[in-house]
Design brief:
The complex is a heterodimer of chains A (281) and B (365). A six-stranded mixed beta sheet of chain A has the order 6-7-8-3-9-10, with helices on both faces. A four-stranded antiparallel beta sheet of chain A has the order 2-1-4-5, covered by helices on one side. Chain A is an alpha/beta fold and 281 residues long. Chain A has a domain at 32-109 and 185-277: P-loop containing nucleotide triphosphate hydrolases (Rossmann fold, 3-Layer(aba) Sandwich). Chain A is built from ten helices and ten strands. Chain B has two domains: 7-278, ABC transporter involved in vitamin B12 uptake, BtuC; 300-355, no CATH class. Chain B has helices spanning 7-32, 36-44, 46-59, 67-91, 96-120, 131-134, 142-161, 163-171, 173-178, 183-201, 210-222, 228-252, 258-297, 317-321; strands at residues 333-336, 351-355. Chain B is globular and about 55 Å long. Classes of the chains: A alpha/beta (281), B mainly alpha (365). At the A-B interface, helix 3 of A face helix 8 and helix 9 of B.
């Protein structure tokens, strides 16, 4: 039996996402549907009973305090971390059958940027799955990769070794690598973390392009001030899903308070963000 | 006294050179996968296997000197040691370095004890077993060299075939897993290559020092290039060169163990790389810095080439120090071959485009 610290008072065990009423069937056409997923690290649960439906063509922000399990959620969906229980369906089928439709953008710190490869070679890695066993990367693949680097605006740095890129440029390289996969569902882990303003704008534009093309993106995000601006839907996470649904209905002061508890500074920040949102049309 | 022209010396040098080639290739990947020390635990764990294989072989009525039997014993106990590392890491809270330290010392200690027992068995044939610890390249015969050649070809062939897969695995294993690559099995293949290299290196280099061949050439090669493919080639070349020189020196001069000589030569190459590249690194870092300053200032002396054509590194010292023709800087400039993306194909000759200085443009004088 798992030993647990008591759950946060706001999130009672029976709580379900706001827009997915209790007992509702998961819609088969959802880009991603997570059913009762629980994840634990060394017997310590880090995600409890996550129940989530992501409709296709939406930009979803995952928001929550540090240690809320935002990255874990994405990694568990991708089978990088074993799930204790629960089911994950991608476009109605198990993830293993749908890998080619999912692209992952890991946290920037997850790799060694001193590795001897160029930005172009990193982007080409997104094509390895399609290239298949034993076959080398050809000129055609490099052209596809270069095109993706153009889309994120750093084609001129294609041949730089990756440690000679700035943080924002490294993040763009990772995004380009996901782009060449031509996936339908993008899972991004903190793509906006520590990037310059230009990169942030470029990423937002990219997300909007993806949505316009009918793709779906699930993005771990830490900046409460920009949530309403960037995302159609939001998932408020703190070990459990505190609330999820359309941003305008879910991203409320009350829900944020439940998610972040008594962290005053964050609350002030959020309040400011909301105050700025209210007069907007 | 041996001479380089002797058939035996040639066999020895050829065998160790092929070994160095394979070790350099595999070492590049394990170094980048941050598994370099796994090879060390593996090779040290081989010692008890050698002793036990000898005892079993003697008990079965053989002389105990059959190389295939000894190497089989070595492989089995090496794999057992590797398994112990993985088990300790998986089932306890200990970290990998602790697990490696435990396995390495315990197995090696057990091996030394087993060799002690073997010596007291009084068979009198056990004297050669110590050569597996420090290596004795002079003991290689043509058949051994043939085995090394086949094994090296296998190792290099597999590495070439799985080059793309290994690159992905070493760079970002998590991402590789999301694409459906069997990360664990790829890791196993890589470790098997290390096992093969270690086994064929036991005779020539010895189990204490074989790790040097897996680490040092790859580490030295890292100074010279930013490309994995080039890195692998350079590491292979350095491994081969240090083995050839080390084995030759050991064969020609008395009382110099081959394993030690090979390690010393490869360390020499490493130091050369370190010192040689310290300059080059300073040079290129200066360039990168200056270029970014220039770009942010918006008045770049000359735009960096965006054509995707490979930048040619300056060839000689006079190039590095020459004056930029378009600005008053005394700093270095780079020669770029090919045409910039903007201008359509009217340029065939090499063009100078990349000034490294951040100095604002001055008109031609």
């Amino acid at each position: 039996m798992l030993t647990l610290s008591p759950p946060p008072p706001a999130a009672t065990p029976t709580r379900r996402p706001v827009l997915a009423p209790l007992g509702a069937e998961h819609s088969p056409e959802a880009a991603l549907s997570i059913h009762d997923m629980t994840v634990a690290y060394h017997r310590k649960p880090v995600l409890w009973d996550v129940d989530l439906d992501v409709p296709p063509g939406s930009l979803v922000g995952i928001v929550g305090p540090n240690g809320a399990g935002k990255s874990t959620l994405i990694k568990a969906v991708l089978d990088l971390i074993p799930r204790v229980s629960g089911r994950v369906l991608v476009f109605g089928k198990p993830y293993r059958q749908q890998r080619h439709r999912v692209a992952y953008v890991p946290q920037r710190e997850s790799v060694d940027w001193d590795f001897p490869v160029s930005a172009l070679e990193v982007v080409a890695m997104g094509l390895y799955g399609r290239i298949g066993w034993f076959r080398p990367v050809t000129r055609r693949h490099r052209e596809i990769a270069l095109h993706a680097l153009e889309r994120v605006g750093i084609a001129d740095l294609a041949h730089r070794q990756i440690s000679q890129l700035s943080g924002g440029q490294q993040q763009r390289t990772f995004l380009a690598r996901a782009l060449v996969q031509e996936a339908d569902l993008y899972l991004m882990d903190e793509p906006f973390a520590a990037v310059d303003a230009a990169t942030e704008k470029a990423i937002v534009r990219l997300l909007q392009d993806l949505r316009a093309a009918g793709r779906t993106a699930l993005v771990v995000h830490h900046d409460l001030q920009t949530v309403a601006e960037y995302f159609d839907r939001v998932v408020l996470l703190n070990l459990r899903v505190v609330a999820s649904g359309l941003t305008e209905t879910v991203f409320t002061r009350e829900n944020l308070q439940k998610t972040y508890g008594g962290r005053l500074t964050l609350m002030t920040e959020a309040a400011e963000a909301l105050a700025r949102e209210t007069p907007a049309p | 006294m041996l001479r380089l022209q002797d058939y035996n010396t040639r066999v020895v040098v050829l065998g160790t050179t092929l070994l160095g080639l394979a070790a350099g290739v595999v070492g590049s990947f394990t170094l980048l996968r941050k598994r370099a020390l796994m090879g060390d635990a593996l090779s040290h764990a081989m010692l008890p296997g050698i002793g036990l294989a000898f005892m079993i072989s003697v008990a079965a009525g053989g002389t105990g000197k059959s190389l295939p039997v000894l190497l089989t014993g070595a492989t089995l106990s090496g794999l057992l040691g590797l398994g112990t590392v993985l088990a300790v890491r998986h089932f306890t809270r200990l970290k990998e370095d602790t697990a490696l330290g435990i396995v390495l010392s315990v197995y090696f200690g057990a091996g030394v004890a087993v060799l002690g027992v073997v010596q007291r068995m009084g068979e009198g044939h056990s004297a050669g077993l110590e050569s597996f610890i420090y290596g004795k390249a002079a003991s290689l015969v043509a058949a051994d060299t043939a085995v090394i050649a086949v094994a090296s070809a296998l190792v290099i062939g597999v590495s070439a075939l799985l080059f793309k897969e290994f690159r992905l695995l070493c760079f970002d294993a998590g991402y590789a897993a999301t694409q459906g690559w069997p990360v664990v099995r790829l890791d196993l293949v890589m470790m098997s290559l290390v096992v093969v290299v270690t086994v064929i290196g036991l005779q020539a280099v010895g189990l204490v020092l074989i790790i040097a061949l897996l680490i040092i050439p790859a580490a030295a090669a890292r100074f010279w290039t930013e490309r994995l493919r080039t890195l692998t080639w350079i590491a292979a070349g350095m491994g081969a060169a240090s083995c050839a020189i080390g084995a030759a020196a050991s064969a020609l001069l008395p009382n110099l163990p081959s394993g030690a000589m090979i390690v010393l030569v490869s360390t020499g190459l490493f130091l050369l790389s370190l010192l040689g590249v310290a300059n080059a690194a300073r040079f290129s870092a200066g360039n990168a810095g200056a270029r970014s300053i220039a770009r942010s200032a918006g008045n770049m002396c000359c735009a960096p080439c965006t054509s995707g054509v490979k930048r040619r590194r300056p060839a000689g010292p006079e190039r590095r120090r020459s004056r930029c023709p378009r600005c008053p800087s005394r700093r270095s400039w780079l020669a770029v071959r090919g045409r910039p993306a903007s201008s359509a194909g009217n340029l065939t000759a090499p063009r100078r485009t990349g000034c490294s200085s951040g100095v604002p443009i001055k008109p031609w004088r």
